[in-house]
Amino acid sequence: MFYKHIIRSDSPLDLKKSLFSGQTFSWNIYEYVHDYYYTLIKGIPLFLRQISQNDIEVYALVNKVDGICLPHFIEQYFSLDIALENIFPQNFSKLYPELWNLMAEYFSMRVLRQDPFETMISFMCAQGIGMHLIRKQVSMLTRNYGEKTIVTFRGREIICYNFPTPERLAAADPLILRRCTNNNRIRATNIILASQRVVEGIIDFKGLCDPQIPLAELRGILAQNSGIGFKIADCIALFGLGRFDAFPIDTHVKQYLGRWFNSTTALRSLSPASYLILDAEARSFLNPELAGYAGHILFHCWRKEIKKLRSF
Predict the structure, then answer these.
(1) DSSP 136-164
(2) 172 with 185: CB under 8 angstroms?
(3) Among 108, 88, 109, which residue's Cα sits nearest to residue 100?
(4) Domains and CATH numbers, the chain
(5) CA-CA distance, 177 to 32, in Å (whole number)?
(6) Confidence bin at 311 (pLDDT 50/70/90)
(7) What are phi and psi of 38, to 5 degrees?
(8) For the segment 116-164, what is each residue's pLDDT rounded down to a tens digit?
């Protein structure tokens, strides 16, 4: 039997924009009723549906996820504790009125608080490839190394897969795992090594969740691992560790910093040095404590409105 909850947000919450904006790659559209989205989190099948601008419907087989009551877990997952009016500085709309109007429909997109290990591995898969291929790689990873779960919802049987455990990926053969990484053996090896470091406690996500750790220090710790540069480290921090001050910079972000904010640094190739300069520049016109949250709204708006990209 499924437990059902209605989660109400004080401000608009757009499920589709939140789940398919390039911050997670494990949610699926329920093929029989397209209004529903589903995934497994901590082994728990979750089905979500938008029922109004501020309300979502949640179904789960248990009433707790990771020891947290389901409504509270969903509120945390979608960061409903973050007041939307605080994401951008108060004078941002006056300084950038055209951009503000362009972004208007994206303010309902929420940045998710996800599992840090899943976030790390997903973004290690994501280097230099498009969203569709990233989702394919993550799907292959879960199907080949995750535990299978069969669930019946609305009279239909669905096969789901948990995200692989660190132990399972740590023991993987790189020659086999590379089938899930676009045939990239180096990437497969780096994923195995990172998983081993999690198993050994060298990468300690519980410790890294400490909000008192300076962002530069956190980025440096994560970037010590092969296959994790500044951008992936900041993605792990932002989407996996709840550090909304982390500001990942990729080609799209560099492009919008140049076009929308007149950054001359954005004209340079992206290197560790230029990355840190761009990061500092972004904090000069964004709320530093929520720079990454705002950055993801800008990123999604750029891809949809300027680049006209549709694949997530």
Answers:
(1) HHHHHHHHHHSPEEEEEETTEEEEEEPPP
(2) no
(3) 88
(4) 3-81 (3.30.310.40), 84-110+242-312 (1.10.1670), 116-149+161-234 (1.10.340.30)
(5) 31
(6) low
(7) -145, 155
(8) 999 999 999 877 778 888 999 999 999 999 999 999 999 899 999 999 9
